[in-house]
Write a structure and sequence with these properties.
The protein has 439 residues and is α/β, with parallel strands linked by helices. It has 12 helices and 17 strands. It has a 6-stranded parallel sheet with strand order 7-6-3-15-16-17, with helices on both faces. A 5-stranded parallel sheet has the order 9-8-10-11-14, with helices on both faces. A two-stranded parallel ribbon has the order 1-2. Helix 8 links the parallel strand 10 and strand 11.
């Protein structure tokens, strides 16, 4: 592992990537092309985090180019010798790096270690894989850059609803549910969905749709007027946690039991409604409260129970995010593109250490993907004690390792790789000596 013996040279800004201050950057600016969000104190000189952020941003843009058209539009960059290409880290955010909107104490130091401030002088690539929804990857990038006070790019983010962008061409008129205000509509339109409606639009058209919910003046202003008696909604997407369970569930149930997604109608067979998709299936999640709070998975469970109680049938629904395998496949493709760009190797890193706090999604998803035929490399699960999982309880899904916090997880992974490298070198030396003796 010769790259671990090298000290990291001063970082240089990558050409073709805009550096935007976290103090003033806007969502619109981040959508104009490859960008990195930078704390104001690093605007004049790139920090140790710059190279990882820049490389992942370019890798994600190249993935989009490849998936939307033939060939590569940009040649790979030259390899960075102080970066290891053998392994990488993937992090959940809530409960691992952030809790209640504030950094977990060891998170900033963990990022410094990955960015080269370690005894081996090696830089380790990393990405963020979160089930949190309701915001674009660009907005999440802005948030995390401000919280951790470090350079981060949108290319490092995979959100629970990220895979939904691939369905934008399949459905025309869709209902998006969850999140604050009109943000989920903005996310969906940014993904390429052509005609996006919200529960607020439906209530504005018919105030009797939800007897116990009335729109505020601000909600009325942001809701779009249309005649839903003449509109067929082709799919339902729950992008983020609902802010109004009663109202949202009423509208969703109306559509699920409708004829071809037309509100005000009722199917006699209850099999003519639109499909429903959830960005993730976490029952609980970690917040600033000392106990976990219910999440989107709980909404899905509630809808399934009500649907069966009314129709006598099982509700068929689809969830993305962790632990769904598609999320891990996308992460693998991103890391493979990064490795191809930076090291000229068209294969993912040998090992990805996934650090999470939720056994039912983070650990389960990592373990099941690693055991599947779809995994091209090793995914290694590490559970931290700073979020959903609590000491004294037995995880429903067993991790490969359990540590106190994200810093310990990073140190554990790096040390494991160092020991693997040493064992490999000893084995090679032994084989060479045996060959000499035989001669």
């Amino acid at each position: 592992m010769s790259d671990q013996k090298l000290l990291s040279p001063p970082a240089k800004a990558k050409p073709g990537i805009r550096r935007l201050s976290s103090a003033s950057a806007t969502f619109e600016e981040l959508t104009l092309g490859p960008s990195i969000v930078v704390p104001p104190e690093h605007m004049m000189k790139p920090s140790d985090a710059h190279e990882t952020a820049a490389a992942m941003e370019m890798a994600k843009h190249r993935l989009k180019d490849i998936e939307s058209g033939p060939g590569e539009l940009t040649p790979p960059s030259s390899p960075q010798s102080n970066f290891t290409d053998q392994y990488a880290f993937a992090f959940d955010i809530d409960g691992v790096l952030i809790r209640g909107g504030k950094p977990i104490p060891q998170a900033v130091e963990a990022m410094k270690v990955l960015n080269g401030q370690n005894e081996y002088g090696v830089k380790v690539p990393y990405i963020f894989v979160t089930n949190g929804g309701g915001k674009t990857e660009q907005e999440r990038c802005l948030d995390l850059s401000r919280q951790l006070e470090m350079e981060i790019s949108p290319g490092q983010f995979i959100c629970g609803h990220t895979p939904m962008r691939e369905m934008a061409q399949k459905y025309n008129t869709v209902l998006v549910v969850g999140g604050e205000g009109d943000k989920c509509r903005t996310v969906a339109e940014g993904y390429g969905f052509r005609d996006v409606v919200t529960p607020g639009d439906i209530i504005k058209d018919n105030k009797d749709t939800t007897p116990f919910r009335k729109l505020t003046q601000d909600e009325t202003n942001h809701s779009r007027a249309r005649n839903f008696g003449e509109t067929e909604i082709e799919a339902i997407f729950v992008f983020a946690d609902s802010r109004d369970w009663a109202g949202d569930q009423q509208i969703i149930l109306d559509l699920l039991m409708s004829k071809n997604g037309r509100l005000g109608t009722r199917s006699e067979t209850f099999d003519q409604g639109p499909p429903i998709f959830f960005s993730h299936n976490d029952i609980v999640w970690s917040t600033s409260h000392n106990l976990t709070r219910i999440g989107m998975g709980a909404l899905r469970t509630s809808l399934e129970a009500m649907y069966k109680a009314i129709t006598g049938k099982e509700l068929i629904s689809t969830a993305f995010g962790k632990p769904q395998i598609g999320t891990f496949q996308f992460a693998t493709r991103l890391l493979q593109q990064w490795r191809k760009d930076t090291h000229g190797i068209n294969a993912p890193p040998h090992t990805v250490y996934f650090v999470g706090d939720t056994p039912e999604s983070d650990i389960r998803g990592t373990n099941e993907f690693n055991a599947s035929e779809l995994s091209e490399n090793t995914w290694y699960s590490i559970l931290v004690r700073t979020g959903v999982f609590q000491e004294g309880t037995k995880p429903a899904f067993q991790p490969n390792a359990t540590v106190d916090n994200v810093l310990e997880a990073v140190k554990y992974g790096i040390q494991r790789e160092v020991e693997k490298s040493m064992k490999s070198k000893v084995q090679q030396l032994s084989e060479q000596q045996e060959a000499i003796v035989e001669e």
